[in-house]
Amino acid sequence: MSVYRSAPYRIDLPKEALARAFHATPEHPVLDLHGGVAPGRPAWVIRIRAGRRVITPMVWGFPPPPGREQLVTSARNLDSTFWRPWLKRANRCLIPFTSFSAPAGPSGGLRPANGRAAAFAGLWRSFEEVLFFARLTSPDDGTGWAATMPVVLTEENEFVDWLEAAPDVAARMQRPPAPEKLVALANTG
Protein backbone atom coordinates (compact mmCIF):
# COMPACT_ATOMS: atom_id res chain seq x y z
CA MET A 1 0.00 0.00 0.00
CA SER A 2 1.28 3.45 -0.88
CA VAL A 3 1.77 5.88 2.00
CA TYR A 4 -0.35 8.42 0.11
CA ARG A 5 -3.59 6.43 0.27
CA SER A 6 -3.95 7.61 3.84
CA ALA A 7 -1.65 10.66 3.76
CA PRO A 8 -1.97 12.81 0.63
CA TYR A 9 1.16 14.77 1.55
CA ARG A 10 4.15 14.50 3.84
CA ILE A 11 6.27 16.92 5.80
CA ASP A 12 9.40 15.09 6.82
CA LEU A 13 11.15 17.97 8.52
CA PRO A 14 11.06 18.95 12.19
CA LYS A 15 9.63 22.39 12.95
CA GLU A 16 13.12 23.80 13.59
CA ALA A 17 14.08 22.99 9.99
CA LEU A 18 10.79 24.46 8.76
CA ALA A 19 11.49 27.61 10.76
CA ARG A 20 14.85 28.01 9.00
CA ALA A 21 13.53 27.14 5.52
CA PHE A 22 10.57 29.54 5.71
CA HIS A 23 12.04 32.26 7.97
CA ALA A 24 9.26 31.64 10.49
CA THR A 25 8.85 31.29 14.25
CA PRO A 26 6.99 28.30 15.75
CA GLU A 27 4.00 29.42 17.83
CA HIS A 28 3.78 26.12 19.71
CA PRO A 29 7.37 25.06 20.41
CA VAL A 30 6.43 21.91 22.35
CA LEU A 31 4.10 20.45 19.71
CA ASP A 32 5.80 18.41 16.97
CA LEU A 33 3.90 17.47 13.81
CA HIS A 34 5.63 15.72 10.94
CA GLY A 35 5.11 12.71 8.70
CA GLY A 36 1.97 11.98 6.72
CA VAL A 37 -0.86 14.49 6.66
CA ALA A 38 -4.45 13.56 5.85
CA PRO A 39 -7.68 15.58 5.71
CA GLY A 40 -9.14 16.33 9.13
CA ARG A 41 -5.73 16.03 10.81
CA PRO A 42 -3.49 18.82 12.13
CA ALA A 43 -0.44 19.99 10.24
CA TRP A 44 2.04 22.85 10.31
CA VAL A 45 0.99 25.94 8.38
CA ILE A 46 2.88 29.20 7.93
CA ARG A 47 0.97 32.48 8.08
CA ILE A 48 1.65 36.13 8.77
CA ARG A 49 0.80 37.22 12.31
CA ALA A 50 1.70 40.65 13.71
CA GLY A 51 3.89 41.33 10.67
CA ARG A 52 6.03 38.16 10.84
CA ARG A 53 5.82 34.59 9.63
CA VAL A 54 4.75 32.07 12.22
CA ILE A 55 4.37 28.30 12.10
CA THR A 56 1.13 27.17 13.69
CA PRO A 57 -0.88 23.94 13.71
CA MET A 58 -4.14 23.91 11.76
CA VAL A 59 -6.62 21.25 10.71
CA TRP A 60 -6.64 20.31 7.02
CA GLY A 61 -10.05 21.12 5.57
CA PHE A 62 -12.42 24.08 5.84
CA PRO A 63 -15.73 23.58 7.62
CA PRO A 64 -18.22 22.65 4.89
CA PRO A 65 -20.86 24.95 3.45
CA PRO A 66 -24.50 24.34 4.40
CA GLY A 67 -25.78 21.04 3.05
CA ARG A 68 -22.39 19.31 3.02
CA GLU A 69 -20.77 17.21 5.71
CA GLN A 70 -17.16 16.67 4.62
CA LEU A 71 -14.36 19.14 5.21
CA VAL A 72 -13.40 21.05 2.06
CA THR A 73 -9.68 20.38 1.52
CA SER A 74 -9.05 22.20 -1.78
CA ALA A 75 -9.87 25.69 -3.02
CA ARG A 76 -10.29 25.79 -6.78
CA ASN A 77 -12.90 28.38 -7.76
CA LEU A 78 -11.66 31.57 -6.13
CA ASP A 79 -14.58 33.51 -7.61
CA SER A 80 -17.09 31.51 -5.56
CA THR A 81 -18.73 33.12 -2.56
CA PHE A 82 -17.34 30.28 -0.45
CA TRP A 83 -13.66 31.12 -1.16
CA ARG A 84 -13.66 34.83 -2.05
CA PRO A 85 -13.63 36.09 1.59
CA TRP A 86 -10.53 34.03 2.39
CA LEU A 87 -8.31 35.33 -0.42
CA LYS A 88 -7.37 38.39 1.65
CA ARG A 89 -3.70 38.69 2.65
CA ALA A 90 -4.61 37.95 6.27
CA ASN A 91 -6.03 34.54 5.31
CA ARG A 92 -3.34 33.27 2.95
CA CYS A 93 -0.84 30.71 4.16
CA LEU A 94 1.96 28.39 3.12
CA ILE A 95 1.47 24.67 3.66
CA PRO A 96 4.94 23.13 3.83
CA PHE A 97 5.55 19.72 2.29
CA THR A 98 8.43 17.45 1.34
CA SER A 99 6.41 15.14 -0.95
CA PHE A 100 2.82 14.62 -2.03
CA SER A 101 0.47 12.37 -3.90
CA ALA A 102 -0.50 13.86 -7.24
CA PRO A 103 -3.76 13.20 -9.02
CA ALA A 104 -2.94 11.42 -12.28
CA GLY A 105 0.72 11.61 -11.27
CA PRO A 106 3.28 8.93 -10.49
CA SER A 107 2.05 6.37 -7.98
CA GLY A 108 5.06 6.99 -5.74
CA GLY A 109 4.27 10.71 -5.43
CA LEU A 110 6.22 13.88 -6.19
CA ARG A 111 8.79 15.98 -4.39
CA PRO A 112 10.39 19.38 -5.09
CA ALA A 113 13.14 19.11 -7.70
CA ASN A 114 15.32 21.59 -5.78
CA GLY A 115 15.56 19.15 -2.84
CA ARG A 116 14.36 21.75 -0.33
CA ALA A 117 11.09 22.13 1.48
CA ALA A 118 8.36 23.65 -0.63
CA ALA A 119 4.84 24.81 0.11
CA PHE A 120 1.36 24.62 -1.29
CA ALA A 121 -0.43 27.94 -1.60
CA GLY A 122 -3.20 27.84 0.98
CA LEU A 123 -6.06 29.68 2.63
CA TRP A 124 -6.93 29.53 6.32
CA ARG A 125 -9.75 30.53 8.63
CA SER A 126 -10.85 30.26 12.22
CA PHE A 127 -14.12 28.54 13.09
CA GLU A 128 -15.29 27.94 16.65
CA GLU A 129 -11.77 28.71 17.93
CA VAL A 130 -10.14 26.08 15.68
CA LEU A 131 -7.84 27.04 12.78
CA PHE A 132 -8.50 25.29 9.45
CA PHE A 133 -6.69 25.37 6.10
CA ALA A 134 -7.28 24.33 2.51
CA ARG A 135 -4.76 24.12 -0.28
CA LEU A 136 -5.23 26.00 -3.51
CA THR A 137 -5.57 23.79 -6.59
CA SER A 138 -5.03 24.76 -10.18
CA PRO A 139 -7.23 24.63 -13.24
CA ASP A 140 -6.25 22.18 -15.97
CA ASP A 141 -4.11 24.13 -18.42
CA GLY A 142 -3.03 21.31 -20.72
CA THR A 143 0.41 20.76 -19.15
CA GLY A 144 -0.46 17.19 -18.24
CA TRP A 145 -1.28 17.84 -14.60
CA ALA A 146 -4.81 17.08 -13.48
CA ALA A 147 -7.16 19.92 -12.59
CA THR A 148 -6.82 19.12 -8.89
CA MET A 149 -3.04 19.62 -8.81
CA PRO A 150 -2.05 21.81 -5.83
CA VAL A 151 -0.42 25.16 -6.49
CA VAL A 152 3.24 24.51 -5.61
CA LEU A 153 5.61 27.26 -4.44
CA THR A 154 9.33 26.46 -4.27
CA GLU A 155 11.16 29.78 -4.04
CA GLU A 156 11.25 32.56 -1.44
CA ASN A 157 9.94 35.15 -3.93
CA GLU A 158 6.89 32.92 -4.55
CA PHE A 159 6.31 32.61 -0.78
CA VAL A 160 6.44 36.41 -0.45
CA ASP A 161 4.14 36.97 -3.44
CA TRP A 162 1.54 34.49 -2.17
CA LEU A 163 1.54 35.86 1.37
CA GLU A 164 1.79 39.56 0.62
CA ALA A 165 0.50 40.42 -2.87
CA ALA A 166 -2.85 42.02 -3.57
CA PRO A 167 -5.70 39.50 -3.95
CA ASP A 168 -5.88 39.84 -7.75
CA VAL A 169 -2.12 39.16 -8.05
CA ALA A 170 -2.37 36.19 -5.69
CA ALA A 171 -5.28 34.77 -7.70
CA ARG A 172 -3.11 34.80 -10.84
CA MET A 173 -0.69 32.44 -9.07
CA GLN A 174 -3.35 29.72 -9.35
CA ARG A 175 -1.68 27.54 -11.98
CA PRO A 176 -0.12 24.08 -12.15
CA PRO A 177 3.56 23.87 -11.28
CA ALA A 178 6.04 23.81 -14.13
CA PRO A 179 6.94 20.13 -14.66
CA GLU A 180 10.62 20.83 -13.94
CA LYS A 181 9.73 21.97 -10.38
CA LEU A 182 8.82 18.42 -9.32
CA VAL A 183 10.37 14.97 -9.61
CA ALA A 184 8.74 11.58 -9.20
CA LEU A 185 9.43 9.42 -6.17
CA ALA A 186 9.91 5.68 -6.44
CA ASN A 187 6.73 3.74 -5.72
CA THR A 188 6.97 2.31 -2.21
CA GLY A 189 3.85 0.20 -2.26
List keywords for this structure.
mainly beta; five-stranded mixed β-barrel; three-stranded antiparallel sheet; 3 helices; 13 strands; disordered N terminus; SRAP-like
Protein model, in words:
The structure is a single chain. With 189 residues, this protein is mainly beta. It has three helices and 13 strands. It has helices at 15-22, 156-164, 167-171, and strands at 9-11, 25-26, 35-37, 42-49, 52-60, 74-75, 92-97, 99-100, 110-112, 118-127, 130-136, 152-153, 182-184. It has a five-stranded mixed β-barrel. A hairpin with a 2-residue loop joins strand 4 and strand 5 (52-60). The longest helix has 9 residues, at 156-164. The termini are close together. The model is unreliable at 1-6 (pLDDT under 50).
Q: Order of strands side by side in the largest beta sheet?
A: 4-5-11-10-7
Instruction: Please tally the β strands and state the result.
Output: 13
Low-confidence segments, ≥5 residues, pLDDT <50?
1-6
Q: How would you state the average pLDDT, rounded?
A: 86
Straight-line N-to-C gap: 4 Å
What's the helix count?
A: 3
| Biggest sheet descriptor | 5 strands, mixed, barrel
Radius of gyration: 15 Å
Organism: Camelimonas fluminis
Protein name: SOS response-associated peptidase family protein
InterPro entries: SRAP, SRAP-like
